[in-house]
Amino acid sequence: MKKYMIFPLLLAAAITFSCGRGEPVSNDGIVQFMLGSVSVEYRGAGVTPVQGDAVKEGSVVVTGNRSIVNIAYGENIIRVMENSTVAITKALVDRAAGTEQSEFSVRDGKLFARVGKKLSRGDLFLVKTPTTVASVRGTNFLISTSKGKSSVSCLNGTIEVKKADDPDAEAVEVKDGQGITLEIGKEIEMKELSDDEIAMMLDILERIESGEENTVPLSNRPIPEYDSRH
C-alpha cells in the first residue's frame, strides 16, 4: 500500500469529561459481518476474522478490493470499506459510569460510522484521518482519506470540523446532508451532498441496521458496488 506524508485528522466527541466512577476496561469490538479479503493485525500477527470474533484495542483492520467488514462497539458500529486500513487505537468502557471511549485512525480508505449511542458526559468517539479535527454528536457519517485529502459526509446529526494543523481555529458545523473536503495547506470546503451520495449512505445504514446481510449465506451475498463508485 502506498504511503503518504499526512497530518492526523481527528474526529472526536465534544464531551470527554472523566466521571471517575469506575475503572475503564477493554471494550473489544465484535465482527458482525465481513465480505471478501479482510485481515486483522494484532501485535505483529495477522488473522482472517470470522463473524463473532473480537477485535482488540491496538488492532489494525485491512480490507482488500471489493471487501468490507462491520465491527460493533455496543450501540455504535463502524464499517471499514474496501481498500482501507483502519487502526483501533482506543476501545474502553467504564461499566459503572456507563461510558465508552472509542478511537479509530483511518490511515487510508473509507470508514462509515453509525453512532447509535447518544454521546454524553464521559463518552468519547474519535476518528483520525489526515487533515481535519471533527467533534461528533450521535450521527451517521462517512469519512475518507487518500493522498493527503480527507472528506467528511454527514448523513444526519451534527459534526464540528476543524483543521488538524490549526486546532484553535473556529469549528465548522457539518449538518444533515452536508460534507466537507480538506487538503493539506488548504481551507475547508463545504458542499451539499448529491442525491447519489445520500442514497449510498442510506443504503449502508439500512444494511447495518437491518442485519439482513448477516443472515445471508456467504456464497449468496452480493458485492456492494457503492464502495468503488464513491
Summed up, the helix count is 3
Using the 3D structure, state the CATH architecture.
Sandwich
Low-confidence spans: pLDDT under 50, at least 5 residues?
Answer: 1-9, 11-20, 217-223
Rounded to the nearest angstrom, the distance between the terminal CA atoms is 19 Å
What's the helix-strand series?
EEEEEEEEEEEEEEEEEEEHHH
Largest pleated sheet: 15 strands, mixed
Q: How much helix, percentage-wise, in residues?
A: 10-25%
Bin the strand percentage: over 45%
The number of strands is 19
Question: What is the top-level CATH class?
Answer: Mainly Beta
> What is the total domain count?
1
Q: Which structural category do the helix and sheet elements fall into?
A: mainly beta
Inertia-based shape: globular
Mean pLDDT figure: 82
Radius of gyration: 17 Å
Q: Predict the CATH topology.
A: Jelly Rolls
